[in-house]
Amino acid sequence: MNVTVTSFGYLHGEPPAAHLTVDLRHHFRDPHVSPELRHMTAHDSEVRQAVLRTPGIPALIDAVSDAVVAYRHGPGGQDVEVAVGCAGGRHRAGVVAAAIRTALADEGVPATVVHRDLDKPVIDR
């Protein structure tokens, strides 16, 4: 049974099909508003630190990891798809998707991360 966590940006199109979709847009501060972080991505340590230090994010990562483990224990025996979205897909979604993969690895669950929109241009808004 495979687990795939896809990060994406709502401003780049519809969310990917998933068993569990996490929308980060309205509840968690967007690093895009900081000029020094705007053109960075989840690959940059400054962005990772900013996102992971956001109140609520660590608990959300743990909750999603727990949900994936629950899906895997269900009788379906199918792959599990998780979609994590933010506005542009370059900051919050990418960091959280990678952190979910790490949390799952800590539980002995291998997962693959796909960043659908991480390398797309910054959307001015």
TrEMBL record:
Against InterPro entries, the record matches this protein to: RapZ-like, RapZ_C
Q: According to its UniProt record, what is one Pfam family this protein matches? A: PapZ_C
Domain called RapZ C-terminal: residue spans: 1-118
Q: Which domain of life is it from?
A: Bacteria
PANTHER family referenced in this protein's UniProt entry, alphabetically: RNASE ADAPTER PROTEIN RAPZ (PTHR30448)
Q: What is this protein called?
A: ATPase
Q: What is the lineage of its organism?
A: Bacteria, Bacillati, Actinomycetota, Actinomycetes, Kitasatosporales
